[in-house]
Amino acid sequence: MTGSILPSAIAGVILAGGLARRMGGGDKGLRLLAGRPILDHVIERARPQVAALVLNANGPAERFAGYGLPVVADGVEGFAGPLAGVLAGLDWAAANAPGCTHLASFACDAPFLPRDLVARLAAAVGRGADLACAASDGRAHPVFGLWPLSLRDDLRRALVEEGVRKVDVWTARHRLVHVDFPLGPIDPFFNANRPEDLEVAERHFRALADQGGRS
Predict the structure, then answer these.
(1) pLDDT single digits (tens) 68-120
(2) Most buried in the list 121, 169, 205, 208, measured by CB within 10 Å?
(3) Domain total of the chain
(4) Domain-embedded: residue 2
(5) Does any domain span residue 1?
(6) Considering only CA atoms, which of 53, 57, 68, 55 is closest in space to residue 26?
């Protein structure tokens, strides 16, 4: 089945449920970048692309209260990875976002994510795929994806009954399309996993400021 997916039919989830071991623990999204938490940059780019936005995070939700976003924890125990966050987002959208048929996912540590990410993923799914994920520079970025709500029970079975944890293992069961995004001065899916990554991102923001533009 093909057809366009309207923006009003797409909810979004920011995945912030990991343990951030390579960053030394804590919330990566709350680390400062260009004077603001990384999460601020992600929300600024993600929110205009979706009809409703939710944050997937484990632990006390109060630490994100200033963002005014619903916060949902993984429903699968044991820090089961990004698929558990996607499932939490799908369940939230099914219960709270009437009319939404799809969920877009964003990583909480990617401050340069494309502003046309969701539109391009939706166009690809509209041409007949079940799922879409982003790619750049020859690499797939499966946590930046578009997921149909119709597959949430299938995903739940894979996580709970089969113990599937790798995104690629589950997406391989369905019609998946990769959508390639061009590289700019920095990879649009650059993620701040380690303290040294923050230094790279800071340099990019300074370069943008010097140019008087935005990426």
Answers:
(1) 999 999 999 888 899 999 999 999 999 999 999 999 999 999 999 999 999 99
(2) 121
(3) 1
(4) no
(5) no
(6) 57
Residues 6+ apart with CB under 8 A from 160: 76
Q: Which helix (H) or strand (E) holds 41?
A: helix 38-46
Which residues contact residue 197 at a Cβ distance below 8 angstroms, ignoring those fewer than 6 apart? Answer: 190, 191
pLDDT in tens, 133-162: 999 999 999 999 999 999 999 999 999 999
d(CA 13, CA 158): 20
What is the domain extent for residue 201? 7-211
Residue 133 counted as domain residue: yes
What's this model's pTM, rounded to 2 decimal places?
0.92
Is residue 114 domain-resident? yes
Residues 6+ apart with CB under 8 A from 148: 101, 102, 103, 125, 130, 131
For residue 146, the cross-strand partners are: 104, 132
